[in-house]
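User: My instructor asked us to take a sequence, write out its structure as tokens, and then describe one feature of it. I'm not sure where to start. Here is the sequence I was given:
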Amino acid sequence: MSVTVEKCLQAWTNSLRQMNAKADIVFFGDSLTYYGNFASVFPNKVVCNLGLRGDTIQGMIDRVEQVRLLQPMKVFLMAGINDVNHVMVDEFEALYDRLLDSISRVLPEATIIVQTMLPVNNQDFSISCDNAKIDDCNSRIKRIAEERDLYYLDIFVLYLEKGLLPLPLTRDGLHLTPDAYVRWYNALSNI
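Assistant: Let's start with the prediction itself. The structure tokens for your sequence are:
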């Protein structure tokens, strides 16, 4: 029997609904979020990591119900690295805007903290992403955040050295090593 992504999504959403769990803070994103231990930054809060490896902006739009069910007061959002190679920058911006609309509609009282995408290392690894395009998309994210008066956290600059994600901070050119998350955690602890 084959289980589809849609069935898994429905099952996890149903589990959250039945648990009636609540979280103070939700981290919502793709694999970069998935691998983070964000609860360590906010030890006195209930933190839920809704990172999903390989997720796209559209996939996150489809998962917004999971965020709503947790009723967080803060949502830390990082999205887009799995879209950069497949969509034009204007389409990226439109998708990101729709994602924020979806979150704002179901959680109008929540504070949304928009985080940029990280740079990649396509010099030492076979990564087809380009940091110039990531930076362009991040500029669009910043503009959207400013237009919506949302908190904007530039994670990209924390990791960019000589135009790349430094080799000691990554295991594959895209994902961070566990120790490399400390830069991100330090930026979050100021919020």
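For the description part of your assignment, you could build on this observation: The radius of gyration is 16 Å. Try explaining in your own words what that tells you about the chain.
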